[in-house]
Write a structure and sequence with these properties.
Blueprint: H1 19-32, H2 36-39, H3 45-70, H4 78-91, H5 97-111, H6 119-144, E1 148-151, H7 152-165, E2 179-186, E3 200-206, H8 209-218, H9 223-230, E4 234-241, H10 247-258
Antiparallel strand pairs: 1-4, 2-3, 2-4
Helix pairs in contact: 1-3, 1-6, 1-10, 3-5, 3-6, 4-5, 4-6
């Protein structure tokens, strides 16, 4: 597992992030937010998914390294072979390199010969597939593992109730603890606790998460989030508590793992 203290996204744009970078970011979040012990129970669904993320990168990288050696392809038929290899090889990862070799060999034979001209194209196609698999696993692992998840409507209702219980105070006692939070906007209501299919995303950090989330929802924080809440989009918030000294690292790791800098954290710089 990556040492959270050493993880650094190095400001690499989401389009250029490798599968390894997503894995490192996920592991950093799990360590910084203390998710591993309370949430990733051995044998549980979350643990299985997290384990898949941890193991995916070196295996997929092995495929990417070995495929051009196993099956160099004919340059004139590069487009067809790239498609075939990209489709077959990642799906064979779980079964081991024997089947990967067979998949690659079949793709090459379908092209009718061998040549070195298309090796880079095949490598690129495999890398893209590996990146996309890692991205999806990162989303599911971290969003499934959040200890507190709720809609913006539920949050505002809870805020109001807390305000009344505190005898007319502003409600700042609700979720008043340190950590990072993730706000997602979806095309529809979330079903079966699957929060990974979001349209937009924002990662925030605060020593008082409840107050900061409230600010975002009422127009005193992130303007994009406020617009989505105002126009009654399907908005949800997920919490990742941590100690104050880990706030910056956790924020950066979440932004990297969830590609938030390509959405409402645009312009983010560590």
């Amino acid at each position: 597992m990556v040492n959270p203290e050493e993880f650094d996204s190095q400001d690499i744009p989401s389009a250029e992030r490798s599968a390894d970078m997503y894995v490192d970011a996920v592991n950093a979040v799990i360590g910084l937010a203390g998710m591993a012990a309370p949430l990733l129970v051995p044998g549980g669904k979350a643990a299985a998914v997290a384990g898949a993320v941890v193991k995916a990168a070196p295996v997929i990288q092995g495929v990417a390294n070995q495929l051009p050696k196993i099956a160099p392809v004919v340059a004139p038929a590069a487009k067809n072979v790239v498609g075939a290899a990209a489709e077959k090889a990642p799906d064979a990862v779980a079964a081991g390199f024997g089947k990967v070799a067979a998949a690659a060999k079949g793709a090459a034979e379908a092209a009718g010969g061998v040549a070195a001209g298309a090796r880079n194209a095949v490598q690129g196609a495999i890398d893209v597939r590996a990146q996309e698999k890692a991205r999806k696993l990162a989303r599911k692992t971290l969003l499934d593992g959040a200890g507190i998840r709720m809609s913006s409507t539920s949050f505002m209702e809870n805020w109001d109730v807390q305000s009344k219980l505190q005898e007319g105070s502003t409600g700042e006692g609700y979720l008043n603890y340190c950590g990072c939070y993730v706000i997602i906007t979806c095309d529809g209501a979330v079903h079966k606790d699957d929060y990974s299919k979001y349209r937009e995303i924002y990662v925030g950090k605060s020593t008082n998460m409840g107050a900061s989330i409230h600010d975002d929802f009422v127009g005193k924080g992130n303007a994009d989030v406020y617009a989505d809440v105002k126009y009654k989009q399907h908005v949800y918030v997920l919490l990742y508590p941590c100690s104050e000294d880990k706030l910056d690292q956790l924020e950066e790791s979440l932004i990297t793992a969830l590609d938030a800098d390509a959405s409402y954290n645009h312009g983010f710089s560590s």
